[in-house]
Amino acid sequence: MAPSLIDERYHKQLNKMPLSMGGYTILETFHFATPEGDVVRLVEMRADKGEFDNFLVVYLLPSYNSDYQFDEITRVMDDEGMSAFEAAEHIIKIEIVDATLSPEELKVVGRFAYNDFSFIGVDGNEYLGKQIKGAYLEPPFDSARIGSTAYRFILDKYRHLVCDNLQTILGASMWSGTMRRYGEVMIYDTVKKCCLDQLGDKAKGSTTGFLPWDIGSLPLSRVTDEWGDRELRLDKGSCTHIVNIISLP
Fold it and tell me: Is the pLDDT of residue 5 over 80?
């Protein structure tokens, strides 16, 4: 269940939902303006059946004038102090993007799948959160802050977020860096059902130095170049019983 590193150069069929899910219910919809000037629509769904409980699907809203759209997003965020969410709604309101298209007509640029996950907290009580079971963003949207926005949405709504089984270096970097800004990240043993440590700097436990990531399928040269001064285990698959959990107070 743990964060083993994988290569991001793989393809997923994004425009088709898994057939096993049957029907679905839309739970929530919101919009986000990326730093690159795109506007995306994020739709949370709950599946009627299948392998995954929830999906957060990311659609790209097509622009009528991408240069003007970028300038206008920059202006309202810099001059008027709008958030990326407010800027997206502003762009939709002044009709620079086509927000009338159906989901079948929009391009899917990302999808996050997540399931219920129960765990024992440091206080001995049982808690229920959501574990990421699959996360993918089509390049170049994988570097557009959409991933951290999606994770923050799930965290805010369900209070506890658990990392996915396999992570690219980009995904692992987000957990070891950006996610720690939102709350304490607990290193959790799914076999012993207990917290081992709190995730600290350099991707290791702050007290014990425990390493929750392993090299997975990546070559050492790749990790050396992109993982930086952070640490990880070199024995492949050695963290399969470890997950990282972030919780809000």
Answer: no
Domain that holds residue 80: 4-247
> In the prediction, which pLDDT does 241 show?
86
Give the tokens for residue 8. 């991001």
* Neighbour order of strands in the sheet with 39-47: 24-33, 39-47, 54-60, 107-120, 126-137, 160-162, 242-247, 185-189, 194-198
β-partners of residue 146 are: none
CA angle 191, 197, 199 (to 5 degrees): 115
Q: How many domains does the chain have?
A: 1
Question: Does residue 66 have a pLDDT over 60?
Answer: yes
Nearest one of 117, 126, 114 to 194, comparing CA atoms:
126
Q: Is the pLDDT of residue 49 over 90?
A: no
Q: What percent of the chain has pLDDT over 90?
A: 66
Q: Is the peptide bond before 140 cis (omega within 30 degrees of 0)?
A: yes
pTM over 0.70: yes
Distance CA 166, CA 174 (A): 13
Task: Give the integer Cα–Cα distance in Å for 185 and 213.
Answer: 14
Residue 91 near residue 30, CB atoms below 8 Å: no
Q: Is 87 exposed, middle or buried (0-12, 13-18, 19+ CB in 10 A)?
A: buried
